[in-house]
Amino acid sequence: MNILLVKLNAEADEIIPPVGLGYLASAVRKSHNVEILDCLKENMNLRDFLGFLQGKKIDLIGFLFFSMNYEQIKSYSKAIKEKFPGIFIAVGGPHPSALPRETLEEIQEIDFAFLGEAELGFAQLADVLAKKKFFPKDLEKVFSLAWRNKGKIVLNPKKILENIDDVGLPAWDLLKPEAYPQAPHGSFSKQFPTAPIIITRGCPYSCTFCGGSLVSGKRIRYRGLDSVIEEIELLVKKHCIREIHIEDDNFTMNKDFVEKFCKALIKKNFGITWACPNGVRLDTLDRELLLLMKKSGLYVISVGIESGSDRILKSVKKVLTTKQIREKIELIDSIGFDVIGFVMLGFPTETEKEIEKTIDFVCSLPLKRINFSCLQPFPGTEIYANLIENHEIEKVSWSNCFLFKANYAPKGLSIEKLRALRKKGLRKFYLRPKILFSILIEIKNPKQFYYAARRGIRWLLLA
Fold this sequence. Notes:
By secondary structure, the chain is an alpha/beta fold. It has 20 helices and 15 strands. It has helices at about 20-30, 40, 45-55, 70-85, 95-100, 100-105, 120-130, 135-140, 170-175, 210-215, 225-240, 255-270, 285-295, 310-315, 320-335, 350-365, 380-390, 415-430, 435-440, 445-460, and strands spanning about 1-5, 35-40, 60-65, 90, 110-115, 145-150, 150-155, 195, 200, 220, 245, 275-280, 300-305, 340-345, 370-375. α1 packs across α7 (about 120-130), α12 runs parallel beside α13 and α16 packs parallel to α18 (about 415-430).
């Protein structure tokens, strides 16, 4: 079969290789022809995409589907079926993992959807479709698949990878990370080119605003250290990568593994820097570990702060206090790391006074940068379920699932007021001479300036 894996274009500050599609490609390429298309990197719209298909013989298209992609998936799928009716369409990612039945009910042109990790099931599906003539009993055996049988939607049992290394390394030769622009996750990098890698999957925590475990489960699984070092060596030697970005949710959960990883990097002496732009949990860090991480090339750490109110932190099951947050961030800063914080505004029952308190709190911390976002009630999260049950929201506009947009505001606040408070927080934090100067001296060339300025304008002026 000829398979095309697609990341759609969108409003985005980061333009990074879709490493998840790289894993999917590795899962199917032994038996099928596969190509990866990053429409964001190529700046492709629907017309461009259909033109791209015109010159190819594609049998199966797999779309990466975030909630913000809903309307795009709908229009792209309809256009594909009109112009290329023989192409099968499959989707996977956070949105169909949370709402598989609704996804197939609402977008009839989609043939298949995957729940959670899709490598095992997608490879099985490709083998089934390659037979040309297949039967329902064949599809019943495909792991984690949502499909239609005589008009009725069937949800097959979910299955996650017990051993992540079984899939092998992502198909970096198809992703070509060295060809990506200087717009990495986290805005800035010490060295270019950069590449994202994933070392762990799963999250045991129960934060009410996060749906990460819908895709990768609650149990955390680590790759083998040899596999991780092999991947970094491949990226350095074959793709000229100078900086690695670990995109895990819980990379520092296992202190012993992190220590072995750092010591392996030091021994290999690749000459690279590395970062954790997706964030690590503050309560997993101590001085000894931080010093070793710094020695091995780590220079910036992103952390989830979420709120400056202990009441809100408790209500969203963050399992951290503002005192702990301050102590850990001051420790990280004292060792010489840049610290980037993530904050959300607009949690259920949160008041304007508490939001103002959060803004003041983060401005008092030794942070290099801050990312304020409006709470998004993503499908599959506890917050989403509670808001639906309590009739505080009826239907979310998935197209508004961007950081600077909002679908919901707590009682006593409007969406417009919430967005104004977000902009106020951004301006209060960033329009300080010390912060502005620290950002300016990080910019190394015109390309990096372009992407940093674009983000600044979007956040401070247009948001």
